[in-house]
């Protein structure tokens, strides 16, 4: 078996390099909206976070997303992301588990 090349991305919170699939993409759209991009296909500047609430909290604390997206992420957006993050975390983990079963 040939080892497959896995694209790696860095989590903006813990700075760990991780396979792209294990990260959640946060994107700043050309309309300056900051969103969670589960498909990884939205256009705009992206930043990656591990699919862990702890990393989200760390990013919130040290404003890692602001720096990664080179834009001020307002507290309202962080709040929205926090709610979304909890909501997507289960879905994200479930999707990964499905993939491991294959
Ligand atoms: Zn992380």
- Measured between the Cα atoms of the first and last residue, the distance is 17 Å
In CATH's first tier, which class applies?
Answer: Alpha Beta
Q: In percent terms, what proportion of residues is strand?
A: 15-25%
Structural category is: alpha+beta
The sequence of SSEs as H and E is EEEEEHHH
Please identify, by name, the CATH architecture: 2-Layer Sandwich
CATH homologous superfamily label: YlxR-like
How large is the radius of gyration? 14 Å
Q: Ligands in the structure?
A: zinc ion
Shape: globular
Number of helices: 3
> What kind of sheet is the major sheet?
3 strands, antiparallel
Poorly predicted tracts of residues: none
- How many independent structural domains? 1
Number of strands: 5
Helix content: 40-55%
The residue-averaged pLDDT reads 86
Q: Provide the spatial order of strands within the biggest beta sheet.
A: 4-3-5
Question: Layout of SSEs?
Answer:
Layout: E1 8-10, E2 17-19, E3 23-28, E4 34-37, E5 45-50, H1 53-62, H2 64-69, H3 75-101
Antiparallel strand pairs: 1-2, 3-4, 3-5
The structure holds zinc ion.
